[in-house]
Amino acid sequence: MTKALIAEAIGTFALTFIGAxxxxxxxxxxxxxxxAHGLVVLAFAYAYGHHSGAHINxxxxxxxxxxxxxxxxxxxxxxxxxxxxxxxxxVALVIVLGSxxxxxxGATVLAANVTAGQGLLLEAILTFFLANTVLxxxxxxxxxxxxxxxxxxxxxxSILMGxxxxxxxxxxxxTLGPALFTGTVNQFWIYLVGTFIGGAVAGLLYxxxxxxx
Length: 213
Prior knowledge:
Elements: H1 2-25, H2 29-52, H3 58-66, H4 72-97, H5 100-103, H6 116-139, H7 147-166, H8 172-182, H9 188-210
Helix pairs in contact: 1-2, 1-4, 1-8, 2-7, 3-4, 3-6, 3-9, 4-8, 6-7, 6-9, 8-9
């Protein structure tokens, strides 16, 4: 468990630090930010997958719990580790970039023309895609050595579509870290509820339809 929790904390730190950092710096525009997130997930799937499953995302962990693939106690421990990783990444970004205002472009917030309901629905749909890929490649074992590629690319394509609307977080820990230092924590509930709904639907679908008995 110790190795797994350290892996989850470091992986979530990396995803938030690199992903939000790329957004704050405007590296490569939307495409650059999408690939920054996707490549981190791809890399850590192979680096830490054998230790923790490399969830690095509370919504993915929730989806696996709903699917019956992880025990409740372990899921809660993962959530704590992931939250710590996201918050520490927020701290590191402020130190490196100089202020919360410098980090703000990397925070995941709703676009001006997007309502809370629209944002919640989009985060739920995109998180469903991500958790669905995790369950049907890595967890099922059917994706083999390419599971990490499939998962990383699912996150990338989701950000390419949803980035301009919600920031396409798909991950409450990734949202939490920057939000605490950029004055955007008031929108955090959207990224918590929406992503957990998406993860839960993916977990139920896997458990009831796709999981081999």
